[in-house]
Amino acid sequence: MTKNNNFDPIKVDDNEYKIDHLKDLSLIIDMDCQNGDTRPITVHMRPTNHLFSREVTDDDKANRAKLEGSGHWLNSYIHHEGNYQQVKTPPKIKESRIFCKEKWEYSFLFPKFVALIEETPSHVTVLANAGDDKTCLSGILEIEDRPEEVYLVFFVLTKINSKEASMLIESAYCVDPNVNSKAKKLINPARDDSKPFVIALRNVMEGRKPLESKKQNSRAHKRRKKNRHK
Description:
Layout: E1 10-12, E2 15-17, E3 26-32, E4 38-47, E5 53-54, H1 58-62, H2 64-70, E6 73-77, E7 79-80, E8 83-87, E9 93-99, H3 101-106, H4 110-119, E10 125-129, E11 132-142, E12 150-161, E13 164-175, H5 181-187, E14 194-196, H6 197-205, H7 214-228
Parallel strand pairs: 4-13
Antiparallel strand pairs: 1-2, 3-4, 5-9, 6-9, 7-8, 10-11, 10-14, 11-12, 12-13
């Protein structure tokens, strides 16, 4: 039932599409902590099926039986909060999606994005989505042999414990960097709107929002404390 969650091959129209290149990916970053210590942080990747699927349309709903029979109809499942590696029991469908061969081809770029972060965590820029500075972030991978496109990745960072974090990959696809506004911002980031990946990770590990400075966090804490005593 949850085979895609285990990264088993997807069979569509008698063709097999492997997705094990997305399985068991992680990276380790040496992080300078607020107390002066330096510790290795392991970030576990949890790609969702959005990396190889598209949304369901009304036409898809009308042809659901046919799409289920061909293997195009995919399901994702609700995971334990903070542990995106583990599906809740009994399994409960979170959403349905349609297999997309083009996005599946793009998904082979994702391991390169992970390697880029691990190699240059201070140079990979992350940006918060509009209206969501707490959870969903985005970053890009520039593609050497395709200058007309960049690989845009959307993700959520969550602290697991003092030495581990989870990186839920909500979506990823290629865009034209000259047209896509988010890609433009990541290529030429404004100081107040973005942070290096390693800083966003440190903020999450120390209990702050990914793009929140220590000063902003302190001010927010004082406001919350003041409101509690009103």
